[in-house]
């Protein structure tokens, strides 16, 4: 499977399919024409020795320093080396791979002045799965994600570290093994590589893909819980949700009824009680609101995936050439979106933890055993799984603090407002992993509760899920190391995101 990159039409679904199918990228010919035209403009600037930021001048506070013509190329190499100040744990390989796709896609818009050689080098790295080791810390999210992207660029010129066939190695050694020369940066190209929001956006895309999948998984897990607590289905009636106008809420309610269709464990209002607690009754409102967030985030990410985010940008207006210094590298729109994603994800875990409490608390769970223990007192059962879930949702409340409301000046106050979007992206994935673990905990407990209630009474669709999950989570007949079950279900949920 190949993704045709045009610089204009890349979608999250393309990325998801690319990752699931171990795909390749291909550059559209019309995009390559734009690349050549924009490079010709850079060559003309060089030939005429015009004063243009980042091509014939220094960077940041040094933008007024003119560079000698014979040092234009060295300027770009110096830029990459000096800006490679990333720290901390590297981004996951999938994130760095998507980062390269996004960087290539933005160069193909024809506003960056990159050479065909650089574009082809990125294409080669992507298709050969030579994945740069990119530290995840050290970016302010404005002037581009300078430090992370510099590490990506180092790999292209044979000076960085890469993952190749799941082994971390020197880029230069891998290129020699593949008989591929390192790219020689030309004027403007270092700047074209590192001015941009690709790290925060790539991490945001991965978080979005997995968050959306978790949102759907949270529904069938909640449906198991609902049946185990003899929940009332009236609250999911379409009339209730159509009266409020939010389509995501309507859709969640419809999916919940579909999951519960045919169940012998659900009730109608007044049969056992008149109404359920909010964690059951308001699933469409709460989960639906998270899907509203996801839809907003998807739109903003797809805008950015097809955006020109470096500086300066090159335009042709008829016979006129424009080279304009602007600020498209500023990550504020994506920082806001990723902070919003953090909140939307967190609430899925918050309400799941409340359902977990209802399943294990003997004052709330009807006729189920305390903590679903096979021998209450001797065996603790699910007691501490609820503790663990409570810990994770509490941690999420700290991580969900918006990174985008912070700023700190840099570059001698030339760059005096920054987005902190990359911090938002990193914290977002931490939240995602916590959410996935909370949903996994609810699944482990709901499976056991359903077993006590009678799995033959489950709805057909949730019975299928029960049977599937029992292949990785055995019935709880005695206390055991439940962290193994939680991890196994969390791994299953992550894999489902790329099915």
From TrEMBL:
Pathway linked to the protein: Amino-acid degradation; L-histidine degradation into L-glutamate; N-formimidoyl-L-glutamate from L-histidine: step 1/3
CDD domains: PAL-HAL
Record key words, sorted: Cytoplasm, Histidine metabolism, Lyase
Covalent crosslink: 5-imidazolinone (Ala-Gly): 142-144
Reactions this protein catalyses: L-histidine = trans-urocanate + NH4(+)
Coiled-coil spans in chain: none
Description of post-translational modifications: Contains an active site 4-methylidene-imidazol-5-one (MIO), which is formed autocatalytically by cyclization and dehydration of residues Ala-Ser-Gly.
Alphabetical GO biological process terms: L-histidine catabolic process
Principal EC category: lyase
GO cellular component, one term: cytoplasm
Superkingdom of origin: Bacteria
Localization, UniProt: Cytoplasm
GO molecular function: histidine ammonia-lyase activity
EC number in record: 4.3.1.3
In-chain residues carrying the UniProt-annotated modification 2,3-didehydroalanine (Ser): 143
Assigned protein family: Belongs to the PAL/histidase family.
Protein's recorded name: Histidine ammonia-lyase
């Amino acid at each position: 499977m190949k993704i045709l990159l045009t610089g204009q039409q890349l979608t999250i679904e393309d990325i998801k399919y690319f990752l699931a199918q171990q795909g390749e990228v291909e550059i559209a010919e019309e995009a390559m024409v734009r690349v050549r035209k924009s490079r010709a403009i850079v060559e003309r600037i060089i030939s005429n020795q015009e004063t243009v930021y980042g091509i014939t001048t220094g960077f940041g506070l040094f933008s007024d320093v003119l560079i000698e013509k014979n040092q234009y190329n060295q300027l770009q190499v110096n830029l990459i080396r000096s800006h490679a100040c990333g720290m901390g744990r590297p981004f996951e390989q999938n994130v760095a791979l998507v980062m390269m796709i996004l960087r290539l896609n933005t160069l193909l818009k024809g506003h960056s002045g990159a050479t065909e050689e650089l574009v082809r080098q990125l294409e080669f790295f992507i298709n050969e799965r030579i994945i740069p080791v990119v530290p995840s810390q050290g970016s302010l999210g404005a002037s581009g994600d300078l430090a992370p992207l510099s590490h990506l660029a180092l790999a292209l010129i044979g000076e960085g570290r890469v993952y190749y066939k799941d082994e971390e190695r020197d880029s230069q050694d891998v290129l020699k093994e593949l008989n591929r020369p390192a790219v020689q940066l030309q004027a403007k190209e270092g700047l074209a590589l590192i001015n941009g929001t690709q790290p925060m956006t790539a991490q945001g895309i991965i978080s979005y893909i997995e968050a959306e999948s978790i949102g759907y998984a949270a529904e069938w897990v909640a449906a198991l819980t609902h049946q185990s607590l003899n929940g009332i289905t009236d609250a999911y009636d379409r009339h209730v949700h159509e009266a409020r106008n939010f389509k995501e809420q309507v859709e969640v309610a419809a999916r919940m009824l579909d999951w519960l269709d045919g169940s012998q464990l659900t009730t109608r209002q007044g049969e056992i009680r008149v109404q359920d607690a909010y964690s059951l009754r308001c699933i469409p409102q709460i989960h639906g609101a998270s899907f509203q967030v996801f839809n907003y985030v998807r739109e903003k990410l797809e805008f950015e995936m097809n955006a020109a985010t470096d500086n300066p940008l090159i335009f042709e207006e008829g016979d006129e050439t424009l080279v304009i210094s602007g600020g498209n590298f500023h990550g504020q729109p994506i920082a806001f979106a990723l902070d919003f994603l953090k909140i939307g994800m967190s609430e899925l875990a918050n309400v799941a933890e409340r359902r977990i409490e209802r399943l294990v608390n003997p004052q709330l769970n009807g006729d189920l055993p305390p903590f679903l223990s096979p021998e209450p007192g001797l065996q603790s059962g699910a007691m501490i799984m609820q503790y663990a879930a409570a810990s994770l949702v509490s941690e999420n409340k700290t991580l969900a603090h918006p990174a985008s409301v912070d700023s700190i000046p840099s570059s001698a106050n030339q760059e005096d407002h920054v987005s902190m979007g990359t911090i938002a992206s990193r914290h977002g994935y931490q939240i995602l992993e916590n959410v996935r673990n909370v949903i996994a905990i609810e699944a482990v407990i709901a499976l056991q509760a359903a077993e006590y209630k009678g799995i033959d009474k489950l709805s057909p669709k949730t019975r299928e899920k029960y049977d599937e999950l029992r292949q990785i989570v055995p019935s709880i007949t005695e206390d055991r190391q439940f962290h193994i079950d939680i991890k196994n279900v969390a791994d299953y949920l992550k894999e489902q995101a790329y099915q």
